[in-house]
Amino acid sequence: MLAKAAGETGRLIGVDVDQANLDIASQRLEGCGCPHLLVRSNFDQVDDVLADAGIAGVDAILADLGVSSNQLTEPNRGLSFQVDSPLDMRLDDRLEQSAVDLVNRLGEQELADLIYEYGQERFSRRIARAICRHRRPARIDTTGKLVEVIAWALRVNPASRRAKIHPATRTFQALRIAVNDELGALQRLLKKAPGILNAGGRIAIISFHSLEDGIVKRSFRSHRIDGIYDVLTKKPLTAGVEEKGLNPRARSAKLRAAMRTDEAPRLAEGDSGQSKRALRSKTRR
Ligand SMILES: C[S@@+](CC[C@H](N)C(=O)[O-])C[C@H]1O[C@@H](n2cnc3c(N)ncnc32)[C@H](O)[C@@H]1O
User: Which is the CATH superfamily of the domain at 96-179?
Assistant: First the structure.
């Protein structure tokens, strides 16, 4: 749809850390009529991608965060507690550290903090204790084993349909966020965005959980206070009934958008240190 909107005179630059998904995007874009460039890169490096392509500014940034359905169900990726596979969770297979490293290396306190902070799991201590106990005789190296340990810690049957969400949901989310530094990458993208957008250019971010949405909301708000953005979505947009029916994962999606104001100072080389400092202090967490 974006490629259609950009048309023959526009240009679409797509980045993804996962080569397989870039290949799918490339097939989808075949014959779309819009010149496009797909680059394997973290979106927190988008400024370098644009510089390499000789592009000084863009009219729109769209980031659809998180994981795609095919990544979730892909055997060997280890992202889903529904599929027994190696405990990996890397979206970018060039990353050195995977979930199996974190689960088997971190101390109990570190694990508990990670599961609490990124998974918002109130039983994080119990789960961390159980992981440390069960990994002693043999490494926890599959998603299936990790689900068993979590279920043991919470005294629940993972196959039971009584619980609203699967008992491993929050722990899996926490590990995935940590392995892929998802919140760090989002913060870096949001910090760079004003320096990439042309005046009047728009940024839209689709997030899938409250940690991401909170970061987007705070970043847009602080850029609005600095006079850099007009926020276009007072409340985040969510999927309607029809879209949720077609794509159940859209249930938790939230879209926020902002527009770079004409007057905003560009945050590139030579810009006032004051606005850079203001931006830095507002986005530091
Ligand atoms: C929700 S999916 C996008 C789905 C896509 N919009 C579609 O309609 O098929 C998110 C994508 O972002 C990629 N991704 C996640 N974090 C990334 C990051 N920091 N940098 C680049 N790509 C990232 C994932 O590999 C995945 O392909």
Answer: Putative methyltransferase TM0872, insert domain (1.10.150.170)
